Description:
Elements: H1 9-15, H2 22-41, H3 45-70, H4 73-92, H5 95-115
Amino acid sequence: MFGLITSQGAVLAQIEPFVIWLIPVLVLGSLAFVLDGYFLGLTEGATLRWASLFSTTVGFLPVGVWAWTRRDPQLLWLAMALFMAARVISLGSQVPRTLSLTSAKMGDDASSANLE
């Protein structure tokens, strides 16, 4: 499959040890991007900002710096997976709050329609 992306033999020879990281990064990344879209649609920019700061400082930076000092690409992939996991956790924990806000707003709209 990677042969469709590149024909460089040196690159293809080094891909195999990193293929396993595609599973957590893609699964967690897809969930994080769905939540990003959800909060973008709600115009919850502050929530996205704080989730990004949290995910970077708690999820990525500690292991990312460790990967850099050890020059270890496996640790760098771990840092990326942790970043995505932190994004899913930080944004996912805010979904119930937005659901209650949305239902409260819809209730206000319905009651104001009855008054007219």
